Fold this sequence. Notes:
The complex is a heterodimer. Chain A is α/β, with parallel strands linked by helices. Chain A has a single domain (5-229), classed as P-loop containing nucleotide triphosphate hydrolases (Rossmann fold, 3-Layer(aba) Sandwich), CATH 3.40.50. Chain A contains 7 helices and 10 strands. In chain A, the strands form 2 sheets. In chain A, strands 6-7-8-3-9-10 form a 6-stranded mixed β-sheet, with helices on both faces. In chain A, strands 2-1-4-5 form a 4-stranded antiparallel β-sheet, with helices on one face. In chain A, helix 3 crosses helix 4 (120-133) and helix 4 (120-133) packs across helix 5 (149-161). Chain A is globular and about 50 Å long. Chain B has a 6-stranded mixed β-barrel, surrounded by 5 helices. In chain B, a hairpin with a 4-residue loop joins strand 2 (92-106) and strand 3 (111-119). In chain B, 56% of the residues lie in helices and 17% in strands. Chain B is elongated. Chain B has helices at residues 2-12, 16-56, 66-69, 79-88, 121-127, 130-136, 154-160, 178-184, 190-194, 216-221, 227-233, 259-264, 274-277, 279-317, 319-327, 332-368, 392-419, 422-427; strands spanning 59-63, 92-106, 111-119, 138-139, 149-153, 167-173, 200-211, 222-226, 242-247, 269-273, 376-377, 380-381. By secondary structure, chain B is of the alpha+beta class. The chains are: A alpha/beta, B alpha+beta.
Amino acid sequence: MTKTEIIKVKNVRKTYMGNGIEVKAVRGIDLTIKSGEFTAIVGPSGSGKTTFLNTISGLDSPTEGEIQLNGKDLRKMNGKELSDMRRDNIGFIFQSYNLIPVLTVEENIEYIMMLQGIKASERKKRVNQILKEVELSGFEDRFPPQLSGGQQQRVAVARAMVSNPTLILADEPTANLDSKTSNSLLDMMKRLNKETNMTFLFSTHDPLIMEKADRVITLKDGKIESDEVK
Amino acid sequence: MKFYIKLAWRNIFRNKRRTIIASIAIGIGLASLIITDAFMLGMRQNMIKSATASFLGEAQLHRNGFREEFDVEKTILEHENMISKIKKNTLIDKYSKRAMAMGTIKSAEEISPIIVYGINPEFEQNISKIDEAVQNGKGTYFEGKKSTDIIIGSKLAKKLKVSIGDRTIITVTGKKNKKNINTKLENIDDEDILDEDEGPVEEAFYISGIYSFNINEMDTGMAFIRLNKAQKLLNLGDTIHEIAVKFVNIKNSTNHKLPIWEELSKNGNEFVGWDNLLPQLKAIFDMSGISLFVTAMILFAMITFGIINTLFMSLFERMFELGLLRAVGTRTSGIRLLLIFEASALSIISIIIGIILGFITTYILTKTGIDYKGIEIAGATINDLLYPVFHIKQYLLYPIGVFVFTLIVGTYPAYVAGKMPITKALRKSL
């Protein structure tokens, strides 16, 4: 399978003011992520992982540098275009509070498809299919507080993947899960990565993710310290 | 759109207690507005009824300038023709002819200035409540045929120290006698004729009734005698000074677009409604309208802070969620729409509570009434219990006002939510 460049980052820097102090969170990163990769960005707290993830997803703008997602320069996009780009190209998985508690599992998953204007019948079909993939069939009408932490993260994975984005960004997805649940969740994500060729990019401290990742990029003080492909 | 409505509705019920408390607070504000309006409307109707039904009538016909000068010479022109028009008009229910003059009333001990009204007792019963007011006082309302009967107010009787059957002397200046003037024409010049005055006329009357309206002006400064007696006394012939009318529907008494106003205000006469006869009362109503507007603004301001407070509390609690929605591709407009819908949902619940509270309270007060009896405002005394009045605008205009106001107010938290940087929102959690 031909691997295309999903993310291309050139000399990205991010500086922000924190309590009146200038913080250089990212200090010049060059990176390319290709389709189908299962990559983990690791590093100690304050190394710039989350800031880097935010900049490459268009949630935050870099102070300097160029970011291309699927060949499109994020710097040239306005707020609306960035929203649409995230909706159509990126699936997000966060550490916790990932789901909207007043929406059912089905409603949480179909939300992005709804933003994309996909018909209700098609949404229903895809929700059922992805719930089967994440082994949560029959949970459609449950609300997030009625699910365990692991089940909630599975729903988050389902929501991130249901619209077939090119990139899944996961920020500490296993931080609030026990090791057994984390393992199960990661196995599922790895399987889906292989089946769909979707690109997974993690920001993590979790050794389990580092173990399962095909590529581990280590950040230190806002710079890439190492980039190891297994 | 439908999805955001559903989400907004569910969101406001995430913290039921807070939503219910906020809705009740806003609802009480709306209910207060509804009750205040119903109360004002009731007071207005009561005062108009009190002012017009006591003696004034809902409208009056006079000769032009009579109201300003109170000149006994200024009798209604073509009064028979005017009465014929009034009788034929289907909008007018009743009428009563009157003659009047300023003068004095004298008892054995005191003297007091008054306006003497000549009235037709039977016709007057349809327009005014002098007969009922006499029952509140003493004596009878022109029961016998005596032409020397006079009815005076209770305060005037007290001042004159008179009671039923006592003799009083009325002194008035009557209309100039043309015959007499003509006989003198040969001996005096024109200027003297214009100044010709028959001089005051005095006549004895016997107190047959003492009324009490609880209106100071009426109880101290008016006296009623029979119309034909007044016409003789004032040398009016069969002419009159005033025709008081009562409309079939009181609303027509201020609808000056009706043809009747122009029709009767021709040929030197003027037909005026109670709103022009009692401008002070109209001014009070206009002022009460302003008061209601100010009250509404204060209540709306309270509602505003209630809504802003609730929405911001809800907003800051869910900052991460809103960041999440933005992160997955929701446009700023979508987030703002969601917040506006939440404000609307809160408003709808509050409006329902407000309408129910307002309706129940108003309904109870329409059954029990509010006792403001005896209070005199701008010459009109509240004589009956005050009953609030339902009006469609209370249940349509004010709720719509609250809803629109909520939408306007809701734009502020919506603006803040939309402007919040996604990364900052994502850093916030419970």
